[in-house]
Amino acid sequence: MKTVFSPVQLTHDPKMEISDGKLKPAVEIPSRAEMVRSEILARKIGPLWTPQDFGRAPLERVHTGEYLDFLESFWSRWTGAGRQGEAFPFVWPVRQLRAAPTPSHIDGLLGRFSFDAGTPLGEHTWAAATASANSALTAARFLREGDRSAFALCRPPGHHAAADYFGGYCFLNNAAIAAQWLRDQGTARVAILDVDYHHGNGTQAIFYERADVMFLSIHADPKEEYPYFLGHADETGEKAGKGFTHNWPLPPGTDWTRYSEALEEACRWLTVYSPDVLIVSLGLDTYENDPISQFRFVPEDFLRLGARLARLGKPTLFVMEGGYAVDALGSNCVNVLEGFLGG
Ligand code: OKS
Ligand code: ZN
Question: Which of 105, 285, 325, 328 holds its CA 20 to 30 A away from the CA of 243?
Answer without folding.
Answer: 285
